[in-house]
Amino acid sequence: MRGKVLQKIFPALGTVNTIALYGSFAPETAEQVKKRVLDLHRRFSLFEQGSDISRINEQAGIKPAPVHQDTFFVLFHALAYGRETQGAFDITSGAASRLWRDAVRSAKMPSEPDISGCRSLGGLADLILDKADGTAFLRRNGQQVDLGGIAKGYAADEAVRILKKHKVRNALINFGGTVIVVGREQKIGIQNPFQKSGVSMADIMVKNKAVVTSGSYERGFFFEGVRYHHIIDPRTGWPADSGLLSVTLVGDSAMELDALATGICVLGEKNGLPLLEKRGIEAVFISNDGEVKITHGLQGKFFLRSN
Ligand code: AMP
Ligand code: MG
């Protein structure tokens, strides 16, 4: 055992991932976490040929694809979050997500027929998981699964599992806005959705918890004065328009928070709150006009910045 602070930063899962370890730990621990996250990236990626998700999508309407147990686990839970959010969190809305991802990239509006065509390709009931065979199957041609709304959460939970196995007591994980504080209390900044990336609007004090932020402020473009972005309302095929600019959730499972944060960006505060209360999850909501609301459990732990 040696070491006091060690930080590793690496790209995966479409974002920048940071692992910071404090105290005494075996030096190879961070490397093992990184390797695990890169393995998950290779299974979950939409863009890597041969990934489990690419194969499910390529074989949509044709035949079931055998998938790794990591993928099966995340697909299974993602469907459950889908049902729980009445389809607001929907991993089968991949065709619409892709349409708007391309629109954001090119800053060009998609056509109405394309939007409604992609919307009609979504459907939680069309993703068939077979536990005995370890396969996943999309019933209809052209359907697409997209784990972008949940993969970072699962990866962060897995990172913490490895850290704990190696007896790391204090650490901070940040996988592109999906944060877990292991051990002693730390101050976590919440992105100011009206400012450039890296500028915080507030801080929360967190100890042994996950903190996950989803925001429509992230990837988007303006067209005729209206902003369009990357979180899709599967019910309409259009970017979510719930009045929320960002949702930050505080709880125990990063995977659960990741899915729910994306889903609540679609559902809005009023419809999202009952889901959170039921599960003992705390939240910070930032609305389109900059109004900030927090749940009771964050009182005394939440501080707005003066800047
Ligand atoms: P997050 O940053 O966790 O909120 O995830 C956003 C990503 O999830 C998007 O870039 C899409 O890949 C995907 N996504 C967009 N809308 C939804 C939705 N309604 N349900 C599930 N995943 C979505
Ligand atoms: Mg998410």
Give a description of the structure.
With 307 residues, this protein is an alpha+beta fold. It folds into 2 domains: 4-38 and 156-304, ApbE-like domains (T-fold, Roll), CATH 3.10.520; 45-138, Orthogonal Bundle (T-fold). It has 8 helices and 16 strands. The protein has helices at residues 29-44, 52-58, 69-84, 94-106, 112-120, 151-165, 254-267, 269-279; strands at 5-12, 15-22, 65-66, 127-130, 135-138, 170-175, 178-182, 186-191, 200-206, 209-215, 220-223, 226-229, 244-251, 282-287, 292-294, 302-304. β4 and β5 form a beta hairpin. The structure holds adenosine monophosphate and magnesium ion (MG). Adenosine monophosphate is lined by residues 89-91, 93, 97, 146, 148-149, 214, 230-232, 234, 258, 261-262, 266.
Q: Tell me the fraction of residues in β-strands, as a range.
A: 25-35%
What's the overall geometry?
globular
Rg, nearest Å: 19 Å
- Label the structural class: alpha+beta
| Major sheet summary line | 8 strands, antiparallel
State the order of secondary-structure elements, H for helix, E for strand.
EEHHEHHHEEHEEEEEEEEHHEEE
Number of helices: 8
CATH-assigned fold name of the largest domain: T-fold
Give me the count of strands: 16
CATH class of the largest domain: Alpha Beta
Q: Which cofactor or ligand species appear?
A: adenosine monophosphate, magnesium ion
